[in-house]
Amino acid sequence: MLLNIRYLAFFGVAVAIPDERVRQASASSSRSSSISSILSSFSSASSSSASASASASTSTSTTSNSTASNPQGAINTTILAPSISHLPPGPNATSYPSDGKLHAPEPAPYTPAGGLGTNGSEPVYVPQSDFDFESLALVLYQEYIELDLFRSALKRFSVQEFEAEGINSEYRELIRFMSDQEVGHATMVANILGPKAPQPCNYSYPFTTVGSFIDYSQKSTRYGESGVLGFLAHLNSRPAASLLSQSITTESRQQAIFRQFKGLFPMPIYFVPGIPQSWHWTLLAPSISSCPSNQTRLIWQNFPALTIGNNPNSSNSGGVFNTPAISHNLSNPLTYPGREVQLSWELPGKPVGPDKSYITNTTAGAPKFVAWVSSLNVTYSPLKTINNTSGTTIQPNTTTLGGAPAINGTMFIAVTDTDLVVTPFNLSMINPHVVAGPALYQAG
Ligand SMILES: *[C@@H]1O[C@H](CO)[C@@H](O)[C@H](O)[C@H]1NC(C)=O
Ligand SMILES: *[C@@H]1O[C@H](CO)[C@@H](O)[C@H](O)[C@H]1NC(C)=O
Ligand SMILES: *[C@@H]1O[C@H](CO)[C@@H](O)[C@H](O)[C@H]1NC(C)=O
Ligand SMILES: *[C@@H]1O[C@H](CO)[C@@H](O)[C@H](O)[C@H]1NC(C)=O
Ligand SMILES: *[C@@H]1O[C@H](CO)[C@@H](O)[C@H](O)[C@H]1NC(C)=O
Ligand SMILES: *[C@@H]1O[C@H](CO)[C@@H](O)[C@H](O)[C@H]1NC(C)=O
Ligand SMILES: *[C@@H]1O[C@H](CO)[C@@H](O)[C@H](O)[C@H]1NC(C)=O
Ligand SMILES: *[C@@H]1O[C@H](CO)[C@@H](O)[C@H](O)[C@H]1NC(C)=O
Ligand SMILES: *[C@@H]1O[C@H](CO)[C@@H](O)[C@H](O)[C@H]1NC(C)=O
Ligand SMILES: *[C@@H]1O[C@H](CO)[C@@H](O)[C@H](O)[C@H]1NC(C)=O
Ligand SMILES: *[C@@H]1O[C@H](CO)[C@@H](O)[C@H](O)[C@H]1NC(C)=O
Ligand SMILES: *[C@@H]1O[C@H](CO)[C@@H](O)[C@H](O)[C@H]1NC(C)=O
């Protein structure tokens, strides 16, 4: 069946669904021109990013200064209140009896009453709110960077450099296939967004070796996945949420595979954490060096950067160099409860992201806690401040449902001004309290 996307004529058919009408449409010029236009703008971005990345290898200060400062900040409109207020659960939150019996007439045989988007109306795969558009636009920035990341790394490093890290030709082919997956994902999200979809940009990566490329990729796919998990259930457009679920599960597999390339245990967690969009944008934006001048801009906040002074090296557990493996029972875990973690962070007001046109900001008070976001849990540890931009904390000892250590894998920490109680579905309530971060902690 044809996916009903409003800008069909502009972008062509979004997704290859095995149906005769789609097959015919996909042969039409409108589809090939739309996809090739995405790809041609990508390939110009890709070739220039290779030089951007190459210069990054010589000097980081040059990189940070290589683009003009053009501070416009995040887009905004009338702002109704400084933050969202906490309310009790809605009136009907617990009214369904959950007794295993049926409580309403069945709309059709074998069909329970209820659900969203189940009444037979034709699905339309378009944003239905600012929340939807801004969240999907953020995802598109992520899909483009991964596409560039995988392709440019395959071009940039030699066969010898890959082989020295144990990344043989079969594994390189897997990375190449992942870049093709990103073409599919980017095309899908761009089609949902329509003509004002963000376009591919130029990128500047902090890595100079194959080992650090793999590490960057297992971190980038972690925040790509967690960023989507954070907002997916909140989208107004259930049809868009449905397609996005189908792309994010392949992103999840990419994350596990990049961990395996590092010889790490592929999934040392029972639950994958979700993060707010502004956390995702804070982590993503610094690798975007420039975008087209008419680029669609985002609403999301860039928090001041947080750096972990003693973040474990994913290549290296207990001094042992890890080569690719399906799994690895790390006898010497990368971290443990009770470990002291050294932190430093920036003050707000720094230009970051594409063309240095976004500005870091925080509305939090004095730094007091570190929030650990992992599995289903948000746990706080007290922050021992050294001065107003650095401090230490102790890795907490917590478990999640089922008894596994809650803090494991590649996870998120942020410096906050309070230990606000939040759970996965309302984690973004923490944003007004974030002093700096998130940073990715390599817990396991
Ligand atoms: C960045 O560029 C400005 C203006 O060209 C210059 O004054 C400044 O020293 C540069 N900063 C760094 C860190 O290179
Ligand atoms: C809102 O956007 C305008 C126009 O770009 C900018 O001048 C202003 O600083 C922004 N306000 C906030 C609170 O970011
Ligand atoms: C609560 O749910 C019931 C049945 O699902 C519905 O009839 C009622 O209008 C709802 N009440 C509110 C306040 O939403
Ligand atoms: C069916 O559900 C959609 C939302 O999914 C709603 O917009 C539409 O009004 C509903 N149609 C009827 C006939 O109730
Ligand atoms: C930006 O300009 C290019 C070239 O004119 C055009 O193809 C593209 O659709 C524009 N993008 C947006 C988001 O307006
Ligand atoms: C993370 O999980 C792995 C696999 O179960 C385990 O070996 C390791 O000790 C755990 N690390 C932490 C910090 O709990
Ligand atoms: C990428 O950088 C090159 C070289 O500075 C520039 O010509 C091009 O316009 C940039 N492209 C984008 C999409 O920002
Ligand atoms: C991490 O460990 C690997 C292997 O020992 C080493 O080559 C690399 O330089 C280390 N990375 C950092 C950032 O220290
Ligand atoms: C973590 O908590 C468990 C259960 O309370 C306890 O057995 C264990 O000794 C604690 N570990 C550390 C390092 O405090
Ligand atoms: C941070 O955001 C607040 C509220 O939107 C705004 O009033 C303030 O000017 C911003 N600060 C900076 C440094 O941009
Ligand atoms: C804060 O303390 C850290 C760690 O001792 C130090 O490196 C840094 O220079 C200090 N910053 C300021 C502004 O004093
Ligand atoms: C972690 O989250 C689970 C599920 O919400 C909860 O049962 C458990 O008590 C939490 N653990 C801690 C230490 O907060």
UniProtKB/TrEMBL annotation:
Pfam families registered for this protein in UniProt: Ferritin_2 (PF13668)
Matching InterPro entries: Rds1
Domain of life per record: Eukaryota
Keyword Secreted: no
Low complexity biased stretches: 53-69
Signal peptide: 1-16
Alphabetic keyword roster: Signal
UniProt keyword DNA damage present: no
Segments of this protein annotated with the region Disordered: 53-73, 86-121
PANTHER family per UniProt: PROTEIN RDS1
Protein name as annotated: Protein rds1
Organism: Venustampulla echinocandica
